[in-house]
Design brief:
- The complex is a heterodimer of chains A (114) and B (111).
- Chain A is mainly beta and 114 residues long.
- Chain A has no helices and 11 strands.
- Chain A starts with a strand and ends with a strand.
- Chain B is built from no helices and 12 strands.
- Chain B has 111 residues and is mainly beta.
- Classes of the chains: A mainly beta (114), B mainly beta (111).
């Protein structure tokens, strides 16, 4: 069974502070993704990576950085958290980046920026 | 441009009734279509996917979906819902190696 874990599961941050969300997968997948989910919207892609030590911008990368230090780990970094970044963040992995590939999701991190 | 539209934000059905959740996609190329389900406090899980062949695809827990190229649709169906089917359902499409998700339909099953 594919396994993607995220930490923390929830976090309260202050505006202007730094936030790091972590993701770990035991699937031996090459691709990892960070999405945000807002009420009334589908998931939107922030950053993704297909190999360690390399990350790519997704559709909404502004205000976010990503880090992929190993195949198993993928972090999302908010250097200066803002109110608009309050959302639920999901990490996912897939074996390949092919169109028909299934993505496996973590349980999500609920971030509240005050 | 790619897009996925789920026109029903919320659907309420009685336990044992049939279900259809609607999904329309916009993409000029070969469609790769998915339905994912999100149970409370959990990540998304794949229900089924389609990318070629028989337009009716079977998924887990009795769900099926039908692809229609002429209507640009990929509607999800279930013959008889159970209270445990209450969740948020997302339709998604990939093209250009990127997922595009619909806004989701929140399904509530009542006794």
């Amino acid at each position: 069974e594919a396994a993607v874990t995220q930490s923390p599961r929830s976090k309260v941050a202050v505006t202007g502070g730094k936030v790091t969300l972590s993701c770990h997968q035991t699937n031996n997948h090459d691709y990892m993704y960070w999405y945000r989910q807002d009420t009334g919207h589908g998931l939107r892609l922030i950053h993704y990576s297909y190999v360690a030590d390399s990350t790519e911008k997704g559709d909404i990368p502004d205000g976010y950085k990503a880090s992929r230090p190993s195949q198993e780990n993928f972090s999302l970094i908010l250097e200066l958290a803002s109110l608009s970044q309050t959302a639920v963040y999901f990490c996912a992995s897939s074996a390949t980046g092919w169109n028909q590939d299934t993505q496996y999701f973590g349980p999500g991190t609920r971030l509240l920026v005050l | 441009a790619q897009s996925v539209t789920q026109p029903d934000a919320r659907v309420t059905v009685s336990e044992g009734a049939s279900l259809q959740l609607r999904c329309k996609y916009s993409y000029s190329g070969t469609p790769y279509l998915f339905w994912y389900v999100q149970y409370p406090r959990q990540g998304l899980q794949l229900l089924l996917k389609y990318y070629s062949g028989d337009p009716v695809v079977q998924g887990v827990n009795g769900f099926e979906a039908e692809f229609s190229k002429s209507n640009s649709s990929f509607h999800l169906r279930k013959a008889s819902v159970h209270w445990s089917d209450s969740a948020v359902y997302f339709c998604a499409h990939t093209g250009n190696y990127k997922y595009v998700f619909g806004a989701g339909t929140r399904l509530k099953v009542i006794a």
